[in-house]
Amino acid sequence: MQKPKVLVVFYSRNSSTEMLAKAVAEGALEVGAEVRMRRVREVVGPDVMRQAPGWLENATEMNTKYEAPTEADAEWADAIVFGTPTRFGSISAELKAYIDGLGGLWFAGKLNGKVGSVFGSTSSRHGGNEATLLATYAPMAHLGLIIVPLGYADAAMFKAGTPYGATHVSQRDAVKPDDDHLAVARFQGRRVTTIARALHVQPQHVAA
């Protein structure tokens, strides 16, 4: 049987969102998905990046591990899971730039009916985690994605995360996602894959 194809496309500067992305991918793999992980690229140059300690170095390291996402990745996928840090209470410019670049696929109707989900992180408590996830729902709806929230459909949800998607508060990058938050992200990967399979993967019929 064909495997559900899941694209995990994220932006991360200091690895918190990256760790959630890896957990989402792990959850998807657990239930039989074919997964692509992609990191969107910076929209500013090295001079700006050097103003934030570690940004340039971390970006260089992560960009050697993950390919940049393309239109072809989005067209390939049965499900697209976006990951973003909160930037001033909303989606990061880096991830939004990738989404904005999908206009050609949108115009051709090639994203309609794909599964969509989102996870994220922020530096401070009440820094906009839930607002960011909900803000990402808007472009997902415009793309024609079938938005999949988490609800409270798994025991992990009663310890961490939000019903809108996995989240983490890094306390100014002093705290990395713990087992509870990673468990929510893995559940998100499993949930998205299960729904993508139901919508897009048809069983193969054996000829009599």
From TrEMBL:
Top-level taxon of the source organism: Bacteria
Keyword Flavoprotein included in the entry's annotation? yes
| InterPro entries listed in its UniProt record | Flavodoxin/NO_synth (IPR008254), Flavoprotein-like_sf (IPR029039), Flavoprotein_WrbA-like (IPR010089), FMN_Rdtase-like_dom (IPR005025)
Q: What PROSITE patterns does its record include? A: FLAVODOXIN_LIKE (PS50902)
For this record, the Gene Ontology CC terms, alphabetical, are: membrane
Position of the signal peptide: none
Which SUPFAM superfamilies is this protein grouped with? Flavoproteins
Q: Which UniProt keywords apply?
A: Flavoprotein, FMN, Oxidoreductase
Q: Which residues form the Flavodoxin-like domain?
A: 6-192
GO molecular function list: FMN binding; NAD(P)H dehydrogenase (quinone) activity
Family indicated by similarity: Belongs to the WrbA family.
Database matches in PANTHER family: FLAVODOXIN-RELATED PROTEIN WRBA-RELATED, FLAVOPROTEIN-LIKE PROTEIN YCP4-RELATED
Entry protein name = Flavoprotein WrbA
